[in-house]
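Retro notes - structure team

What went well: the batch runner handled both jobs without manual restarts.
What didn't: labels got mixed up in the shared folder, which is why I'm recording both outputs here explicitly, each with its sequence directly above its tokens.

Job 1
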Amino acid sequence: QVHLVESGGGLVQPGGSLRLSCTTSGIVFSLATMAWYRQAPGKERELVAIISSIDVSANYADSVKGRFTISRNNAKNTVYLQMNSLKPEDTAVYLCNTARLWGQGTQVTVSS
């Protein structure tokens, strides 16, 4: 059975940092392109970052470039999202994705 389980969300002040993790099972993780999306209330789901399986190249939404870093550990079947210099507009549910598979999401709230 396939599972994508996110963790690491929480409440943080503007300018702070969080590191999200998505641990997977039931997939060949080393061959999977992995992505982080986010969805804020009343807004469409947005691709935040994506990392390939082969050359580990990454791409980011313009709104997070220079602040967020996606990475992966194939030995742990886990993908990460390091989020620095967080802003209130980063507040959303962050979801892990590969192909048509989704995690349940983890809430990130940036507020003073």
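Job 2
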Amino acid sequence: VQLVEFGGDLVQPGGSLRLSCAASGFTFSDYAMSWYRQAPGKGREWVATISMTGRSANFADSVKGRFTISRDNDKNRVDLQMNSLKPEDTAVYFCSVRYRQVDYWGQGTQITVSS
């Protein structure tokens, strides 16, 4: 299993950013995919999960209404669209899959929200 995130950047408060995660090594369309984040000095926080088909998704209260998650099962990719970004969204963002009862993570991509 390999997960590679990209799209991290420095963005101003109120701005938008789209993260992507490229997955390989498993049958992507058979698994729900998630995004997590870890802010400096804090534990890893769940952000969002999208179902295998992409028809349903769940979000942490902290991002609900601002973030959306989508997937392309033909391209083995899951995206996180982040709008109305706040300084408290600053973190390293990871995509994750629970494959055969083991959680796999990418290396993460840094988002910094600052003016």
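One thing worth noting from job 2: The mean pLDDT is 97.
We'll revisit the folder naming next retro.
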